[in-house]
Design goal:
Alpha-lytic protease prodomain-like; 70% helix; 2 domains; Alpha-Beta Plaits; three-stranded mixed beta sheet; mainly alpha; 284 residues; 8 helices
Length: 284
């Protein structure tokens, strides 16, 4: 990714932070005036969106630093840390909102549905805009930015749920739907936060990527002419994109370099592994 592209993406993300903060202020005022917990829930989620984007920007800037004698792999895992922070915040916000919803159920208060409707409608438009900004900033190919994008998408869905709840309050006086909407938003937030957290932890624990099978790698390497067996195969991700591998090859051929070249070619073409350390030992 070029420096100019990163600069442009950071500009989009910074603008998304700015409009999220303005929206948060408007939602706080609207939530207090209307007495709607679901609108307050959407406000807290929206505020976490702004924080998520800030974390994503800082993490990516750190990740773009060059490798050195201390950090020989570079700083790419800074984005993993950013994703872990954001996923944790999603789960905590979700749990807090469920707690508040239970309290609201046992201590109901009047709600002005029209204020909720107008504020949530404006929020929905802004949430969609910020989701577009974060997606165009690199969410498709970057887990760190994707975490911020999921924040925004889930907030847009939350605003839509709040709009539906406000209509039910206005026309049918079904105030219970404010609590139901809050719990629904919270469960959705916790679910996506858990998925992101699981992926981060698996990468940090150096788990084999989901798209790769160690058995398939072993079979492919043992199919190379001159390879008797492939042992001690380890596959892990440095961050969201780069996959590394090491293996010990037992050869029945003296042409070690040719075997290594062919093996690396298969690994890159079939498994998208371009960083492979291959140790060899000739027998027979």
């Amino acid at each position: 990714m070029s420096h100019s592209h990163n600069h442009s993406s950071d500009g989009k993300l910074s603008f998304a932070v700015f409009i999220n903060i303005l929206l948060t202020i408007a939602q706080v005022v609207g939530g207090i005036m209307s007495g709607s917990l679901s609108l307050i829930a959407d406000t807290l989620h929206n505020l976490s969106d702004a924080g998520a984007i800030v974390v994503a920007i800082v993490a990516r800037r750190i990740a773009n630093k060059s490798a050195n004698k201390t950090m020989t792999y570079g700083y790419k895992r800074a984005e993993l840390i950013g994703t872990l922070v954001n996923s944790t915040s999603l789960i905590l916000v979700g749990l807090y909102l469920i707690y508040e919803a239970i309290g609201k159920y046992f201590n109901p208060t009047p709600i002005d549905g029209w204020i909720v409707l107008w504020v949530a409608g404006i929020a929905l438009v802004i949430d969609i805009a910020t989701a577009v900004l974060t997606y165009s900033a690199g969410a498709k190919n970057n887990m760190n930015i994707r975490a911020a994008f999921i924040h925004n998408v889930s907030d847009a869905m939350a605003s839509l749920v709040v709009i539906i709840a406000s209509l039910l309050i206005i026309f049918f006086e079904l105030y219970i739907f404010d609590v139901i909407a809050t719990i629904g938003i919270s469960v959705y937030v916790i679910y996506h936060g858990s998925l992101l957290m699981k992926k981060c932890i698996m990468i940090i624990m150096q788990a084999v990527p989901d798209s790769i099978s160690v058995e398939e790698i072993q079979n492919a390497l043992e199919a190379v002419e001159g390879v008797q067996s492939a042992k001690h195969i380890h596959v892990w991700q440095l961050e969201d994109e780069r996959v590394f591998m090491e293996a010990h090859l037992v050869l029945n051929s003296d042409n070690q370099e040719a075997v290594k070249v062919q093996s690396r070619s298969i690994l890159e073409e079939t498994f998208n592994i371009s960083h492979a350390t291959l140790e060899t030992r000739t027998v027979g």
